[in-house]
Design brief:
By secondary structure, the chain is of the alpha/beta class. It folds into 2 domains: 2-103, OB fold (Dihydrolipoamide Acetyltransferase, E2P) (Beta Barrel); 124-245, Response regulator (Rossmann fold, 3-Layer(aba) Sandwich). 26% of the residues lie in helices and 24% in strands. It has 7 helices and 12 strands. The protein has helices at 22-25, 95-106, 136-147, 159-166, 185-194, 212-220, 236-245; strands at residues 2-4, 7-12, 15-21, 40-44, 49-53, 78-83, 89-93, 128-132, 152-156, 173-176, 203-207, 225-228. The chain has a 5-stranded mixed sheet with strand order 1-2-3-5-4. Strands 9-8-10-11-12 form a 5-stranded parallel sheet, with helices on both faces. The longest helix has 12 residues, at 95-106.
Amino acid sequence: METLEGRPFFTLDGETVGLVPATQVLDLPQMPTSTQLLPVAVLSDRGSRFGVVVDEFLGERDLDVRPTDPRLGKIPNISTASVLEDGWPVLIIDVEDLVRSIDNLIHGRRFKLTEATASDTTSRRTKRILVVDDSITVRELERQLLESRGYAVDVAVDGMDGWNAVRSVQYDLVVSDVDMPRMDGIQLVMQIKRASGLRTLPVIIVSYKDREEDRMRGLDVGANYYLTKSSFHDETLVQVVHDLIGDPET
């Protein structure tokens, strides 16, 4: 194991693979370790590859996989479930979801946010915005634009990733695209506005679509503003953000 820019990694087949503890990405208590040998599960999707440090390997087994109760909704990082012969339940990892969570964790965009103190009411707090877009170019453009104005910005790669994020972190504002895989922006807005603890969360839809019916569709499901992506080229997006949540710090 080596360290680069303060982050641990190892080399596998000539490729650098970043390391992250499973306890940290799954928000579980840290388990003590009694050995210098770390069992690592290597996970990857189409664009990223990570090594997840686990407690131990138990072996292989065939499982009768079952869907989770639909009343639970989408459980972050979990796809399905099973039950062992002795009756113990087993949760089956959603690999693509977990890879996205690890990427956010490594880049400091999620999970560690809860470590910031909230008890000191006299300290200033930077307002946090979630940008949801499946285009990495648009995500980075929006993130840099808003961060340059002093806001803290997290990113999500699609509506489902965004929905998991708003249930994990307290945001002051969500900026979302419309056309995205797994869950589009309209569905994301509907989910937010239906959730009792989130329905007051302001949402801005930013889309390439500029037809009146698209605009009305976004506003009808509860979006506070509907902007076109041409607003990146002037101060419209920044002004709307300021109108909804005010200055970057309180």
